[in-house]
Amino acid sequence: MGVWSAPGRANLIGEHTDYNDGFVLPFAIQHRTAAAVRLRVDGRIRVASTFAEEPVEVALDDLETLFPSDGAAGRAQGPTVPEWAAYPLGVAWALRALVPAWAAGTFAGIDIAIASEVPVGAGLSSSAAIEGATGAALNELWGLGLDAVSLAQAGRRAENEAVGAPTGIMDQMASTLGQADAAVFLDCRTLETRSIPLGFAEAGLEVLVIDTGVKHAHSTGGYRERRESCERGAAALGVAALRDVTEADLPRAAELLDDVDFRRVRHVVTEDQRVLDTVAALAAHGPRAIGDLLVASHASMRDDFEISIPELDTAVDTALAHGAIGARMTGGGFGGAAIALVDHDRVPAVSEAVRTAFAEAGFAEPHLFTVVPSAGPHRDV
Ligand code: ADP
Ligand code: MG
Prior knowledge:
By secondary structure, the chain is of the alpha+beta class. The chain is built from 13 helices and twelve strands. It is globular and about 60 Å long.
């Protein structure tokens, strides 16, 4: 019996670059999802969440039927579980798949109770937090000895194949590798990471999250269309992924692609460069030097990738107009949250200005709070 927890994450910069084999710079936040877990002797797994009225229980041996490795076709025919339960059950399934069948057959049954302080669907990756907490617990209780990268990969597999959300690996890596006062610089091709000191507190800066309350959904067409544009762009340019395209290649891309696909490609290519520039600027000049890169990132998502919404643009514009050093939407887009880098003393004024601007525009009241770069998964009790 024990309690494990894992954090949500905010992405400082590097949006929609992860599935293009590119660079991202997220950080784990202080909001965590906790999983209270105990072993049971009957080979069954039961998951409960404060999020759902009913727990879900299945035999461990049935996980392979529930989430067949051939993907969604099997899932549609087989027994189904509520979507939320596919996250923790999918992690258990993905972890079992890492060991030989006879060894998986010796795993004890599990009771998991989940509670979370990570807002759902706000672009702060409550999904990676639930995967990370479940993974950390099962890693220890099943004696798997997996490292943070393997646990992140299991979380991604759960999300892609058990839940059916076509996400990259950024969220899980940000959650499992988070460190206090640092971001995780991730090369999504090699999965190499570097911890990048942020120094926000020392510089008197806060990261203000402006959650618009507008729910995004990965399954909606917009996300898939963006991915397809990126794949077409890479194919037309003859590269494995847009990671292999540089800003110098953009004129050629403009000739080969239609206007929409070209702008999608330009976002990814320039965003990769902005991530590298942000890492360099942090090291050379500290966090006050990254504001313009955040602003350029937002403009690129708004104009080229077209994943912003009026609420996010209002949040960013208002924060900047009231003294934020930089601001951008964060997460997959079509809703969710923006982040603003703000002097500690100006947080109340910026917050008030954003609330007023939302009210004047007739938007729902935003949810505002600050996030602190924080540590990854650990055992709490
Ligand atoms: P986010 O940006 O928050 O990660 P996602 O759509 O990727 O948004 O994941 C949100 C989903 O994760 C929820 O709809 C739910 O199915 C699942 N989830 C997140 N937190 C919990 C929780 N505490 N309990 C149960 N399910 C959760
Ligand atoms: Mg998510």
